[in-house]
Amino acid sequence: MIERLRAERIFVLERGEIEDYYMPHISGKKDKREKVAAAYKFREKATSREAVLKLLFPDGDPPDRCEFDEIFEALFSWSGLPLE
């Protein structure tokens, strides 16, 4: 289902909300202010592809590609901006 949506340029995160990707010690599921603070904490740590993979797979062994690779490649290819 997700792949069919992506083919139509509709991007749905596999885990649901972006907050579901935060590290366990960063909680962003409370009030609006806490969600914003959690987003800033996540952004401070998610500075590169490698850093995001470490956040998503803290026990190691990330896949060669993850859903964010697919989403960002699609967005940049449609925009005409370079991927690197």
Short précis:
By secondary structure, this protein is mostly helical.
Helix content: 40-55%
Give the H and E element order. HHHH
Q: Give the low-confidence spans.
A: none
Number of strands: 0
Strand content: under 5%
Structural class: mainly alpha
Query: Whole-number average pLDDT?
Result: 79
Span from first to last CA? 29 Å
Total count of helical runs of at least 4 residues: 4
Any overview of this molecule?
- The chain is mostly helical.
- It has helices at residues 2-7, 32-45, 49-56, 67-79.
- It is 49% helix and 0% strand.
Draw up the topology in text.
Layout: H1 2-7, H2 32-45, H3 49-56, H4 67-79
What are the salient characteristics of this protein?
84 residues; 49% helix; mainly alpha; 4 helices; globular
